[in-house]
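Protocol step 4 of 6: record predicted structures for both targets in the notebook before any analysis. Target 1:
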Amino acid sequence: MDESVGPDSRAQKICFESIPPIENETVSSRIERRLATASTPALICCNLKIMDESVGTKFPEGEPSGQWTVEQLVNWSLHQYQQHTVHTAEQHVESLRLQCDNDCDNANSLLEMARDAMAAETTGPTTGKDDKPIDADAENVDPQTAGNATNAANATNADSVKSPTKTNNDAANKSKIEILVTSGPHASAKFLLRPKSDTPCYVGRSKGKKFVKNGISLGKDAEISTTHGKFLVETGLGNLGPTFYFVDVGSTNGTFLEGEQLEPEKLVRLTEGMELRLGSSNLKIMLS
């Protein structure tokens, strides 16, 4: 193939200008090497302009061969360069999107913490440490009787502090949910969730702090929303253990249980062995 470059071809001039040939180098390799070094704004703009003018397929299908003309090789190389540029741009956009989601999650967490702090200050006790209700008959109580009653109360409180009940310990140990992903891009992954009455555990595609540390981050499942749902707990009274719930927070593709789509923002009580489908991922619930 003739590798000479005509002075009237802008594409040929761009691809071969100031690029001396290497021994046994093919024409396509020489073009690829020229495009890889086209880092100046003028060359980049010129390359893009040529791309814009080269609408349609102006080269044969398949890999370059000895039957191709220089112009066909240039168009093929520009097409490869354009595809690589688009793919790289898409990766940068996805990276920035994930970073934005992470920053938004952190900002929302700080906002929730600030709101909780303000609510605690608003609804907190308004009386001082020594502000106690006055008993009208307090002056008529015998001091010795009052002292005995105080000592008995203190002894009872001390026993309750030193000897916590086994029931409370068992309830605390059971306040967790084990999640096994049985299908999807995160298959075989396991998560241990410990939701609290005022702190739910979130699940979604986000890689934010609250998803990674105390939730479920399924970033590889493109069908799951950034914030898809959350796990809640209701503390039991007495000997009753905690009750766990799942809530779909309005995800795009929804959450399914036994083939039926869950209603958004509605509590669904979790039971042992049940499976929730989020996107292309199945989540098996284990409470024991």
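Target 2:
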Amino acid sequence: GGGGGAGAGAVAAPRYTAAANGNSNLVPIGPPLVAKETLYQEELLDAKFHERIARTHAKGQVLADAFNARMATLCPERPDLRVAFAPCVIYKVFDDRYAAGIAWILAEPRLEGKYTKWNNNAGNVRQTVEGAADGLVWQAPQAFSHFTHSQHNGLELFCDLQGVWNEFDGFTFTDPVRHTIQAGGKRRRRRTDKSKAGIAAFFESHECSDLCVRLGLDPHPRF
């Protein structure tokens, strides 16, 4: 993902894969998965690259759980405002066409519904959700981005939220961007992590919605 589309990030748009295509002897087992293809050959062979993505999804889900708990109190009986992140699985692939005969593939459950990008760092916000009960629904992804910044004392923010929505489960996101500010020391960041500059870019265009107000989020946070 990335604010400027597939070319700006480290992972290309999800691509559906057809297992057992043309081979009647193979039977698919389990739910359909989507494999994600990196734009950089060296990352295809790097397990840690895929682990960082999976870790980002896992951390996003922790924040989603906290957001959903607040929303359950503020807007009870509104499952359409819930957010979640698609769980990831990393596969080790043995194939002689790759260096050392090994590659790594990140996969996640295939998302059912209309795939949509809800916000990005360029200030674009999707303000319509087909089938939504009211305007609170389109506000949820943007309010969640603001919420993630509040939850970590201004040291990180999740944005570039994309995925699917339905009235029963709410939003399911995939491949978010996570901007982080390191309190001390250094660690290897994803290409899309723009640190303080990325957080600043989000708030330069962000306009607090009714959901932000209900959540008690600071309209002018420091970072």
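Step 5 preliminary note on target 2. The beta strands are 15-16, 33-36, 83-85, 89-94, 102-109, 116-117, 156-159, 162-166, 170-173, 177-180. The chain is about 30% helix and 20% strand.
Proceed to step 6 after PI sign-off.
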